[in-house]
């Protein structure tokens, strides 16, 4: 366990003041855990935002013989619309919890209650992001390979940059779900640790 | 992480919950529920098969030719993924139930392992159902933009069975969510 854990996180240095002198000696690990929490949530926000932006900007128009100009866009498939909505919700959620987590660092009075609420809502958001990644991935796979049993032709040979956008977006959202899994583990393991800290 | 585990180990002996047995019983029941649901979902996908005769008109002057067409679960990779995810979750539920049942008292390392894997099962099951729902929707409605035809007007029973499996599998995933929430709640109570 890190003993010298002044919050020296370079990217959040501006919003995290040094720990208060009245905090008891055993408290620094808990504070440190919330700093890690905020860092992971910032990462989650960045990942969700990037995934949404990459997905929305993926747009390609191609000239198809006999059919004229055909455009490929994310809102042509309900799975991709769901993906954009789910990742936007995850991004908004991470923004709110960044504020909540920062307020816990400033005022460690509520920390235990917040940890439990975070654990609940994080699991729900994990379900949301995982299902969005799964649905977009399922459709993208059919788009990439096609399916001859049901006669669905592959479209990624035509819309190459569009499919690259979708693939990039999927990779980022997979990363976001990994971050969420780590966040849940962090919340629950700091609940494990809570009893050894002095009563708050 | 290691420090946290030691912290509880020290504390787990002092803080003994009065309703520890009931909590364990609820957890076992929830695991049994998850096991049954994921098993049913996997079987529903695994036995899904439908053969239909489709009239195909080759030449307009001749009567249509009846061709038997079969839909099987392994034709679509999303359904394969759904079944594999359900099988993994099912076997994990059986294993974790066995381990929870046989372990006496508070086993911290085992508890942490089970918690970590529970979280992973939530993600696995939700991504599996998400993929199957997305493909199923294309099956029901088709997609005119990329000219993918709908197939559920021909294979109605097949699609219904997949839909049933998806519903059961979502309930199984919710059971795993409850398991994670449950252990967070228990730790919260214990630390009061």
UniProtKB/TrEMBL annotation, chain A:
Region span, Disordered: 1-21
GO CC entries: plasma membrane
UniProt keyword terms in alphabetical order: Cell membrane, Membrane, Transmembrane, Transmembrane helix
Coiled coil: none
Cellular localization per UniProt: Cell membrane
Main location: membrane
Casparian strip membrane protein domain sequence ranges: 35-179
Membrane topology term: Multi-pass membrane protein
One Pfam entry name: CASP_dom
Residues that span the membrane, as ranges: 38-58, 79-105, 117-144, 165-188
Biased composition (Basic and acidic residues): 1-17
PANTHER family listed in its UniProt record: CASP-LIKE PROTEIN 1U1
Subunit structure: Homodimer and heterodimers.
NCBIfam families, sorted: A_tha_TIGR01569 (TIGR01569)
Family the UniProt entry places it in: Belongs to the Casparian strip membrane proteins (CASP) family.
Stated name of the protein: CASP-like protein
Originating organism: Carya illinoinensis
Classification of source organism: Eukaryota, Viridiplantae, Streptophyta, Embryophyta, Tracheophyta
Automatic annotation (TrEMBL), chain B:
Main subcellular location of this protein, as a coarse class: membrane
Protein name: CASP-like protein
Location of this chain's protein in the cell: Cell membrane
One Gene Ontology cellular component annotation held by this UniProt entry: plasma membrane
InterPro entries on file: CASP/CASPL, CASP_dom, CASPL
Alphabetically ordered keywords of this record: Cell membrane, Membrane, Transmembrane, Transmembrane helix
Species of provenance: Carya illinoinensis (Pecan)
Domain of life: Eukaryota
Family: Belongs to the Casparian strip membrane proteins (CASP) family.
Transmembrane segments: 28-47, 78-101, 113-142, 162-185
All copies of domain Casparian strip membrane protein, residue ranges: 22-174
């Amino acid at each position: 366990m890190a003993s010298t854990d002044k919050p020296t996180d370079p990217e959040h240095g501006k919003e995290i003041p040094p720990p208060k002198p009245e905090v008891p000696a055993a408290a620094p690990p808990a504070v440190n855990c919330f700093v890690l929490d905020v860092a992971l949530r910032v990462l989650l926000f960045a990942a969700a935002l990037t995934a949404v932006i990459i997905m929305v900007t993926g747009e390609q128009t191609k000239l198809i013989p006999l059919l004229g100009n055909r455009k490929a866009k994310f809102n042509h498939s309900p799975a991709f619309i769901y993906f954009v909505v789910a990742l936007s919700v995850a991004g908004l959620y991470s923004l709110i919890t960044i504020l909540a987590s920062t307020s816990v660092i400033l005022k460690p009075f509520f920390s235990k209650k917040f940890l439990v609420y975070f654990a609940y809502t994080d699991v729900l958001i994990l379900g949301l992001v995982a299902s969005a990644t799964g649905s977009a991935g399922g459709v993208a796979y059919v788009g990439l390979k096609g399916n001859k049993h049901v006669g669905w032709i592959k479209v990624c040979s035509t819309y190459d940059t569009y499919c690259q956008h979708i693939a990039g977006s999927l990779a980022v959202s997979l990363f976001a779900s990994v971050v969420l899994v780590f966040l849940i583990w962090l919340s629950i393991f700091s609940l494990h640790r809570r009893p050894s800290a002095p009563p708050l | 992480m290691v420090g946290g585990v030691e912290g509880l180990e020290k504390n787990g002996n002092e803080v003994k919950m009065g309703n520890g047995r009931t909590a364990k019983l609820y957890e076992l029941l929830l695991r049994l529920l998850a096991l049954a649901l994921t098993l049913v979902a996997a079987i529903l996908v695994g036995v899904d098969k439908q053969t239909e005769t489709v009239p195909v008109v080759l030449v307009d002057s001749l009567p249509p030719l009846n061709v038997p067409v079969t839909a099987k679960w392994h034709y679509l990779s999303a359904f394969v993924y759904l079944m594999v995810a359900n099988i993994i979750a099912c076997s994990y539920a059986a294993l974790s139930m066995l381990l929870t049942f046989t372990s006496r008292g508070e086993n911290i390392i085992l508890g942490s392992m089970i918690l970590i894997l529970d979280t992973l099962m939530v993600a696995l099951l939700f991504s599996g159902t998400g993929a199957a729902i997305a493909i199923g929707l294309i099956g029901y409605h088709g997609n005119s933009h990329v000219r993918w035809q709908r197939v559920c007007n021909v294979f109605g029973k097949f699609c219904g069975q997949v839909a049933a499996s998806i519903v059961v599998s979502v309930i199984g995933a919710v059971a795993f969510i409850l398991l994670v929430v449950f252990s967070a709640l228990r730790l919260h109570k214990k630390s009061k």
